[in-house]
Structures are given as structure tokens and as C-alpha cells.
Design goal:
single chain, 408 residues, alpha+beta, Cytochrome p450, five-stranded mixed sheet, three-stranded antiparallel sheet, 16 helices, 10 strands, monooxygenase, oxidoreductase
Amino acid sequence: MSVEGSEDLATEQDPPYGMPYRRETRYDPPTALMDMQAQPLRPMRYYPDGVEGWLVTGHAEGRKVLADPRFATGERFTHSPTELPHVFVSISEQVPPGFFLFFDPPEHTRLRRKVTGVFTVKRMKDLEPRIADIVDERINALRAAGPGADLVREFALPVPSLVICEMLGVPYGDREAFQRNSADMLDLSRSVEERNKSMAELFGYLMSLVPAKRADPGDDMLSALAADPDIHEVEAAGIALILLVAGHETTANMLALGTFALLEHPAQLARLRVEPELMPAAVEELLRYLSVAHNGIMRIAKEDAEIDGRLIRAGQHVTVVLQAANRDPHKYERPGELDLGRDAQGHMAFGHGVHQCVGQQLARVEMRIGFAKLIEAFPELRLAVPSEEIPMRSDMAVYGVHTLPVNW
């Protein structure tokens, strides 16, 4: 029997317990996780009790699972691929009305279509001047803070927060509370109960805005949702919740971690400075290379389903690991290298299938403008502390850096 066949047999007889998630480096997925790509769809035992499910590390296999309607999100997730309870476990325990990420069609379709028109490529193109103004304002704030300033606090977090607040009609003055609750929701080191409490507080805050929007509507998404006769006010708040959290958490971490990665890859950064036309491709490559949603996307099989000759039983959990799928050597040459000239199209940083991120075009615009203006404004941008002192968000559902002190 071949070595590969022996490895497969051993895996079938004794599936591994949990998904490796502790990194040896700042940007690369765990070595043990990448070693699992020899069998890109494999059985795995889930926490807390060792029940058997599946782990997907391959790009093609991941797309198949995420596009297959037999794999659901509108279920109660009770098991986690790591000893830290997955964010899907906590949210599915107490899903707010309207939080369409945890609904399946047709209910998912009904709710999602209420916001898809806002995030079209044309609408995002129209929004570019305002995003550029916000980026300029935050670059000025970063400069005013002086050398040693935290790029996360002065730039990476405020830019997407200001944009999504303006789009939703959420007062930016309330940002400290919603940013704190949002971060607590995604903190995997906190208990499920603590995370649910933070989600409930944030949902309650948005609920409190709906009657005011209905009584005195503005030119914003929450006003439109509050006035929609087909949407209940609690659904309006739930839709706003997912947009608010996703609208600033993922992009903020991409702006900060992406800047860190560019500073740590000076040849790539230098190339981007002399070839600014590479920016759209550079954003796609950074999305692929960093894959900040690093704990994977979970699904539950609604019925027995066969994927690539493997039978996944009804009720079993399946985790598609985006950070591994986006480094699949069958999809990308030299996948472990950051290459800003690469054609990274087809990556799954935004997921895949009907639940693919509804705000992905907004995120792309924010990153293209944000990175371009940042490197233009600070031609000597550099870290203010040794790179090993940068605190990483290893125990968060969205990977990144907690702070990023910079000089220029």
C-alpha cells in the first residue's frame, strides 16, 4: 500500500481531534493544518465530546460544500472544531431575527435581498469620493497623533466604522460601545454566555434606533429597513446587526494586518509604490494570503450528502477552513508566497455560495483607497516596535493585530 493510502487508512480509523489553529508564524496557517491538505476532505472529531464531523482544507472541495444547499446554516451548531467555541456555536444559540447569515433559503433570500441593491459595484463606485474623504481625514488624524501612533486606533478601525455608520445611519458617536460589543462577540477566549450577552446588548442598541428612524427617516439603510412594510422592526435591527459587525470588523483587520504584511514584505511594498495600477490585484492577493476569517465556515448536513466520493451523514458538522483553501497548491502556484502581481481571483476570503459576503464590494473599495492613500501619504512608513512585539488576534474569530505602532 502506498504511503498516501496508509495515511488515509489511519485517518479513517482514528480521525484527528480538532483543527490545528495555533500558528508558528504571523501570516501562515499552522503547519499541522496545512499538512492535512494531503486529504482535503477528511473526518475530524469535534469538541467538546469527540463527535465525528468533517474538515475541508481544499479549495475545490470547500467551494462544493459552500455551494451545496444540502449544507445548512439555519441549524443549532453544538460542536466546535477547536477547544475554543466557534463563533457559529455562540451566535446560533441565540440568533436574532433578521440575522440572515444563520438562515437558509427561502428566508435567507427574503432578508438578504433587502440589502443587496445597496452593495452593487455601481453604488460602491458612487460612494468612492466619500470613502476617499474619510480616508484622508483619518490619515490626517494619524499624522497628528505623531510617530509611534497606533495605526489600528487612528486609521484601520475608524475608516470602515465611519463608512458603515454613515451607510446604516448609526451615530458614530456611539462607536465605542458597538465596537466593544462587536469585539466581545468575536472573542473566542470568552464564554458563550459572555458573547451572547454582548450580542444581545448590541442588538438592543440597534432596536432602540428603529422607532426613531421610522418616525424621522433619513437617507440611510436603517431608515429604509424601518420603513419597509415587509420587514418587522426586530428583523430590521437584526439585519443592521450583521452589517454593522461585519462592516467594520473584517475590513479594519484587513487594513491593519495588510499594512503589517506589506511592511514585512518590503520588496512587494516597493513594487506597489512604483506600480500603483497593481492595487486591485494587490487587494485580492492580500485577501487570499491573509484570510482573516481564519477559524473556518461551518455547515451542518441537512441530509446524507456525497462530496468527492465521501459520505457526509445528516446532522454532521462540516468546517471549511478558508485560510487553508486559499493556500491550496492545486489552485495557486507558490501559495505560501505574497505576490501582489498574482491573479488571486477565485479566492474564498469572502466565502462562497449564497452566504458569500454581501458587502464584499464595499470592503474592496475601502481597501483599495485605504492602502493607496496610506502608502502615498507615508513614503517612509515603518513599524515603531520590533515585529515580534506586535500583539496578534490569535484567539479572535477575525484574525489581525490588536495594535500596530508605526513611524514615518
